[in-house]
Design a protein that fits this description.
This protein has a single domain, classed as Protein of unknown function UPF0759 (TIM Barrel, Alpha-Beta Barrel). Strands 1-2-3-4-5-6-7-8 form an 8-stranded parallel β-barrel. With 275 residues, it is of the alpha/beta class. The chain starts with a strand and ends in a 15-residue tail after the last helix. The chain is 33% helix and 16% strand. It is globular.
Amino acid sequence: MISVGLTAVADHPDLASGRVSSLADLSTAFPVVELDTTYYHVPSEQVVHRWLSQVPATFRFVVKATAAMSGHKVDAPRDAGAEFMALKRALAPMQASGQLAAVLFQLPPYFGVSPTNIRVLHRIRQLYPDLPVAVEFRNAGWYLPEYQAETLLLLRELNFVHVVVDEPQTPAGSVPLVAEPTNPVLTIMRLHGRNVAGWQRGGAQWRSERTNYRYSQEELQALGAVAQQLADRSKQVIVIFNNNGHHDASANAQQFIQLLGLHYQGLGPRQLDLF
């Protein structure tokens, strides 16, 4: 099964029934979402209940670990132990309802191959022994020929979900697309676009420009073939479109669904605009 969704809940004007798009809006077109607000702070359990109330019972969530938990702060896995437990408590209703697809650890570019960082990955699993955990490497060293097989083996041993990425390939060492599942239940694809200039750009607009990209039909067909290949080896593949610097993600995701002939039951009802 291939499930397609978006990130950045409030940033999809083509789906919005109000001033900004909501979870309810996204659920009318997609069966899954990636929540990135949790990267900045742990939500309360009340907030999680509110999220669940906005979507159908079959809708699922990929939830980002906080910056401290994913190592964007020094010694995060050790020092962020309280955040690990706080997020686990907050997500308990989502886990109980079967709607937590994974907790996503998007590791920073400086998280390279080392004994220390391998211990970090083991520590994450120790702290979350019973939660679905997905790992996205941003350091290409994990996929070098001399390390790639061991990297995938480590993810399998820890029962981590491998995040397969599509991103601009730059001379600075971008992560390649490695279409290998490491968990029989789930594989995640995150599609960041292929804007090479924007990916390398600094300045005030770097965040929007790095994901400013619209995939062509040919590119979507090729990525669809990858998703189908992964679906032969994982029970479910979640494809998240993150190419939303200029609001292209929703249209591309819907085009992707059509190209693959995907159909989802139990989507949210569309709100009719009477004016």
